[in-house]
Specification:
Number of helices of chain B: 11
Helix content of chain B: 25-40%
Order of helices and strands of chain A: HHHHHHHHHH
Radius of gyration of chain B: 24 Å
Number of strands of chain A: 0
Oligomer: heterodimer
Strand order of the largest sheet of chain B: 5-6-7-3-8-9
Strand content of chain A: under 5%
Structural class of chain B: alpha/beta
Strand content of chain B: 15-25%
Shape of chain A: globular
């Protein structure tokens, strides 16, 4: 190509090595982490999709609560708090992980990562803020489920006239919360890895919901090898003995050290590995 | 001040930005010009840390973007006005930005006022925004933190003529107050009226840079003047006599001389001029010539023949 205009040498810039800082840095400190968390919290609920997800989760909670009271009232069953905590954790576990997925993937599908990572170029800090914000939401939802469980228990007692029972086991209750958070962290981890909303949601529901219900339970009941293998690859199967002292098909088992190892391993497999790879990917990604 | 220092960005075998160096000075508007795909946006993304450089670096005010605390308070950027959540309102998008930067809410209203988005428009969701409204919102977002450096990628895209004029005034005033402005465009006329300095890029390389005068001086291959007078024949004869090459063009004459020389000959010959202007390569020609190696236009000189009888049904 013929260049007719001379290309003048670039104006003499600051000497290489240590250019003088000419920005007035006094007007800003580093963005505090808490502020980023507040912003991420706001971003979860300021769109219609976010409001819908929250409303549907709340609606499902109310629905399950209503069904329990109705069934108990009609049949005169005695309910206990353990059963209630299990029942009401279903709506929470059903939709909440979607928040953990969307908070990451929507930045890519809506291309807001361009703004987010320009406002705060320390990308891991942004992702950390997202994790904290969405975990806070998860805990808040679980607390809401507990409150509703208490109310349901009171209603059931009122409807049936049975004595109130508050016999919830602390350890079972704790494990319910741990498994909720584990699944939800798994959604977040898969989202970081795939950076794609439909992909992350599909993989999450297949691994966390569809396979355990449709396949693992059957295999577990029929084959010895499945009994040995599945606790190493499925979080549900691994955590079941720890949560309730029974395997996924409801048979009582003695909890041993190996169950803890399996629990930690499966969480590492579905949370630790994808989140590590995913964060590595996000750190290096070109944001367009 | 933005300092781009020997920046190269490669994607495998393809080099999008090839050893680019330039400085955008404070108090000046620097225009970054080039055809589509020349590497402007890639260079700008490197500036704000969204694209990792393969080699070289960019510093803003002496710091890498990554090392500037709360960088949006210092560097306002608009890279893609459509890269916002379609379901958020304009006001919400600005509010999120202001909150992240730690600015008071009042700043959002100030910026909405500044870019001329009404209260009703600010309440609409981004998916219902026209491109021009998105650009205005993007400019508002870039100015939110009262930065001293502005990086705008194709900011005039989608703005109506009034909007473009408004933006020119805004950026000019901003530079006059000591700010550094870098704006890119693939349209020369958008930039040449406000840019104090122009960087022409094609095929990932800088092909020319300087202010308007320097660029034109480098481009001209001897003076050409276009002149029209009340007595073209008389003027032509006088010019030929003075030793200049003259040829008739349209209603006037094309002369191989400077406008001053032609004016003097006309004065001596007593011919009334009705039009006198420099006919040398304009900035537009220069721009096209310099970047033609990369432009996606048809091969020069080959005009596709019209289909006889129009487009067959």
């Amino acid at each position: 190509m013929s260049t007719t205009a001379p290309v003048p040498p670039p104006p003499a810039g600051p000497p290489a090595g240590a250019p003088p800082v000419t920005l007035d840095l006094s007007k800003s400190g580093p963005t505090p982490f808490g502020r980023l968390v507040t912003v991420e919290w706001r971003k979860m609920i300021d769109t219609r999709s976010g409001m819908w997800l929250l409303s549907i989760t709340a609606g499902l909670l109310a629905l399950v609560m209503g069904i329990i009271v109705l069934v108990v009232g009609l049949n005169g069953y005695q309910v206990d708090a353990n059963g209630l905590s299990q029942g009401l954790s279903i709506p929470v576990s059903l939709l909440l992980p979607v928040f953990g997925i969307l908070i990451v993937t929507s930045e890519w599908s809506q291309r807001t990562a361009l703004t987010s990572f320009t406002l705060e170029p320390h990308r891991m800090k942004v992702l950390g803020a997202k994790l904290v914000a969405v975990s806070a939401l998860a805990v808040a939802t679980i607390l809401l489920a507990i409150v509703l469980g208490v109310i349901t228990n009171l209603l059931c007692a009122a409807v049936t006239g049975n004595p109130l029972q508050w016999d919830i086991e602390a350890s079972q209750f704790l494990w319910t919360i741990i498994s909720q958070l584990a699944f939800f962290a798994m959604g977040f981890a898969l989202a970081c890895l795939l950076l794609n909303t439909p992909g992350a949601i599909s993989v999450f529901y297949i691994v966390a919901l569809v396979l355990p219900i449709m396949l693992w339970g059957t295999l577990f009941a029929l084959f010895d090898w499945a009994k040995d293998l599945l606790p190493w690859i499925d979080i549900n199967t691994a955590l079941a003995p720890l949560m309730s002292g029974a395997d996924i098909n409801g048979n009582t088992v003695a909890v041993e050290a190996i169950n803890y190892v399996q629990g930690i391993w499966t969480v590492f497999l579905w949370v630790g590995i994808p989140v590590t790879l995913g964060l590595w990917r996000i750190r290096r990604a070109e944001v367009k | 001040m933005i300092t781009v220092d020997r920046l190269t960005v490669s994607y495998g075998a393809f080099t999008a930005v090839d050893d680019v160096s330039f400085v955008a000075q404070p108090g000046r508007v620097t225009g970054f010009l080039g055809p589509n795909g020349a590497g402007k946006s890639t260079t700008m993304r490197v500036m704000v840390g969204l694209t990792p450089p393969t080699r070289g670096q960019v510093t803003i005010g002496g710091l890498r973007y990554h090392d500037i605390p709360n960088p949006a308070r210092h560097v306002g950027s608009l890279l893609d006005a459509s890269a916002q959540h379609a379901g958020r309102t304009g006001r919400e998008i600005l509010t999120l930005g202001a909150q992240t930067m730690g600015l008071p809410k009042a700043r959002v209203d100030e910026m909405l006022d500044l870019v001329g988005l009404t209260d009703a428009e600010a309440k609409r969701r981004l998916r219902n925004y026209s491109l021009g409204m998105r650009q205005r919102l993007g400019i508002a977002h870039a100015l939110l933190g009262d930065p001293s450096v502005l990086i705008l990628d194709e900011p005039a895209n989608g703005l109506d003529p009034a909007g473009i004029r408004w933006m020119r005034g805004l950026l000019k005033g901003y530079a006059d107050r000591g700010g550094t402005v870098l704006l890119s465009s693939h349209l020369l006329h958008e930039v040449e009226q406000i840019a104090d300095e122009m960087i022409l890029i094609g095929h990932g390389r800088i092909v020319a840079q300087g202010d308007r005068k320097t660029l034109l001086a480098g481009a001209s291959k001897g003076d050409i003047t276009l002149v029209t007078s009340l007595d073209n024949a008389g003027l032509g004869a006088a010019l030929t006599q003075a030793g200049h090459t003259v040829e008739p063009v349209g209603e006037g004459l094309k002369v191989a001389a400077s406008t001053e020389q032609v004016g003097r000959v006309a004065l001596d010959a007593g011919v009334v001029l009705t039009d006198l202007r420099s006919g040398g390569a304009g900035l537009e020609d220069l721009f096209l010539e310099l970047t033609s190696g990369t432009a996606r236009e048809a091969v020069p000189g080959v005009v596709p023949a019209p289909t006889p009888g129009g487009i067959p049904a």
